[in-house]
Specification:
With 234 residues, the protein is an all-alpha fold. Helices cover 58% and strands 0% of the residues.
Amino acid sequence: MISMPPVTAAARALGAGGLHVLVPRDVPATPDADAARRAAEEELAKPVYRETESLRMRIWQWLAEHLDPRGAVPGLPAWLSVLIVVLLVTALVVVLVVLFTRITWARRVTRPGDPLFDDDRDAAALARAADTAAGRGDWTTAVVERFRAIVRTLDERGALEDYPGMTAHEAAVLASRPLGGMAPQMHEAARLFDAVRYGRVVSTSEQDAWMRAFAEQVARTPLVPAMPAGQVTP
């Protein structure tokens, strides 16, 4: 025989009188105002309803906590720690400005192969411009203007023919014959001119001194007649 599970009192009640809902007698059918208010407060207190902080505010709080200059140097008073941080930041800014200025001067022209001259100044005016630039420590301008002065000197002495659009390399080729044994130095000067003018190197006082000495040597050297401009070879 199959045994049946015992019948509980609740089951007997359901069987006897149909479906009944058992509700405790002490629970009211509708909560009063105080109970409803407490339930609403408890619900709104849950984390899901809290206003989240913006990403910007979180970043700012992190920076304020970890980069506070008052505690940057442990063991020192707050004012001294702030002073040290300010001095370090100022020094860093000065170094960056100096580096940026030097790079900017070195890269004023960025297209290699541009014409050697952009005006019609004579050799004396170009040499004065080089001297002025060297006097203020602008070695880039000093080297560039000194080489231009050398080429203009050769043109004025009839050793080569200056023409519109001539490049430093073309000027060195034209000057090879009249300069004779100084031709290698002329080509080196042209390479230095291009390297400094187009930002491949940052010019120095030593480079300016070398270009100045070469210019003086060219001025003292006897020259042979000029090579026609149409005979320039690569």
